[in-house]
Write a structure and sequence with these properties.
The protein has helices spanning 7-14, 31-40, 71-81, 91-94, 107-110, 113-117, 121-136, 148-160, 190-212, 220-232; strands at 2-4, 20-25, 46-51, 85-87, 140-144, 166-170, 237-245, 261-269, 272-280. With 282 residues, the chain is of the alpha/beta class. The longest helix is centred in the C-terminal third of the chain and has 23 residues, at 190-212. 39% of the residues are buried. The structure holds pantoate.
Length: 282
């Protein structure tokens, strides 16, 4: 695996390749990331991963400084997975001057849910992804569905700027008990790790309830409140638990309960904020 820190090194490593398949990450890799690499591998003529902890997508009180950096282990995992090129720019490589020119995604999507609780998050994500795309110039990119709204924002970014990139959404990888794999799981205590699966459980319960009614739910708010209370009573601090349309992440209209839906949730357990979602199949 070739490691490129600068844009020149990256261009040299990709010289002669016409169809890079790209998986952007912030490092601290786990099996979920490796599954994205596996998914990308057959889709391009060179597989590229990036590791860059993007300051722009963290709010001042968030965990940018303490975000786990596990360089050696990440490189080993990527090598073992057969990744060809790792782009790991330093902050001065990607942001040699303050990034004053930013990408502002459509607020109708980006200010909902995650965007409501992490204002500016999707501006930071869109800006860095746009920049990584201009560096790597992929023909295909793989994002995990665990960050459901992020995947939707990236699809819009690619469509609206007519980028010649195919965006693939890969299914969420889960631990045996159902907890979605995430870099932040490593920061949970043993006790919190046992409790963490409850986020998945309440999303499962929400989704089952909607499915069992065959789309004839009268009050989605009631299901959402019950799910919120279930987590609160176990000591969680939920940001949101919501049933939304998959097309735009808005609440479905009362007469449109059969359009494809997704149960989305974000909640804090101790100091760790976890997010997850489940697509609801009728
Ligand atoms: O999902 C992530 O790890 C990050 O948001 C991404 C897409 C690598 C941008 O920094």
């Amino acid at each position: 695996m070739r490691i490129a820190h600068t844009l020149t090194e990256l261009r040299n490593a990709l010289d002669g390749h016409r169809r890079p398949a790209f998986v952007p990450t912030m490092g601290n890799l786990h099996a979920g990331h490796i599954a994205l690499i596996e998914r990308a591998k057959p889709l391009g003529d060179v597989t590229v991963a990036s590791i860059f902890v993007n300051r722009l997508q963290f709010l001042p009180h968030e965990d940018f400084d303490s975000y786990p950096r596990t360089w050696e282990r990440d490189c080993e995992q990527l090598r073992a997975a057969g990744c060809d090129v790792l782009f790991a720019p330093r902050e001065t490589d990607l942001y040699p001057e303050p990034q004053t020119f930013k990408v502002h995604p459509d607020p109708a999507l980006a200010n909902l849910l995650e965007g409501q609780f992490r204002p500016g998050f999707f501006i930071g994500v869109s800006t860095v992804v746009m920049k990584l795309f201009s560096c790597v110039q992929p023909r295909v990119t793989v994002f995990g569905k665990k960050d459901y709204q992020q995947l939707m924002v990236i699809r819009q970014l690619v469509n609206q700027f007519a980028m010649p990139i195919e965006v693939i959404g890969a299914e969420t990888l889960r631990a045996d008990d159902g907890l979605a794999l995430s870099s932040r799981n490593g920061a949970l205590s043993a006790e919190e790790r046992l409790e963490a699966v409850q986020l998945y459980q309440v999303l499962r319960a929400m989704s089952d309830e909607v499915r069992e009614t065959g789309g004839r739910v009268r009050d989605l708010g009631e299901i959402e409140n019950r799910a919120t209370q279930a987590l609160v009573s176990r000591g969680w601090q939920p940001d949101y638990l919501a049933l939304r349309r998959r097309s735009d992440l808005l609440p479905p209209a009362a007469d449109d309960m059969t359009s494809p839906m997704v149960a989305v949730g974000a909640a804090r357990l101790g100091n760790i904020r976890l997010i997850d979602n489940l697509e609801i199949e009728f």
